[in-house]
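dude i think i finally got it to work??
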Amino acid sequence: VSIMALFSSPSRRRLEKPMSRLAQAGLLFFIFAGLGIVTYVLFPRAIGATLNKIRATTEMQNGRYPDALKFLDEAASDNPWDDEVQFQRHIVLERLAEAAPARRPGSFRAEALTALRRAVTLNSTKAAYRSALAEFLKDEDPRAALEARGDAVRLYPAKPVYHFHLAVACERVGLKDKAL
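look at this
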């Protein structure tokens, strides 16, 4: 009896009505518009971002950091939500700060910190980003470095080096009991 009631219910009868021509045309328009956006906008941008990441990696391996930064900036503009691009930008900017201390190391370091914080924001579950942030901040802001070290340990407790670095950070801020 309940099955008969389900098949004869008003909502079931409404579903059986065919779509109007206007509704069909509207649905087809949205399907093809979505496919067009994916095909002609998103897909090429994703490919461009990936190619630029590959080019940047090659330039980094060859020590050409200004060129690597250019490719990473292009990849970031193609895909601003890619945490790996931001992390690589941080590495390149740190190398540039080390290589050109007479020119503008402060601005390279500031940009590197911004890129690293963006990577952490985009992927808050990656312990390596937290560890890199702690390493970056250890001299300038030991308390923030300690917090980042603690986050890295919480995110990846099976990695012994994170525990070691947390103990060193605790000792650095005067928490020797916690360090042991």
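The two ends are 71 Å apart (CA to CA).
im so relieved honestly
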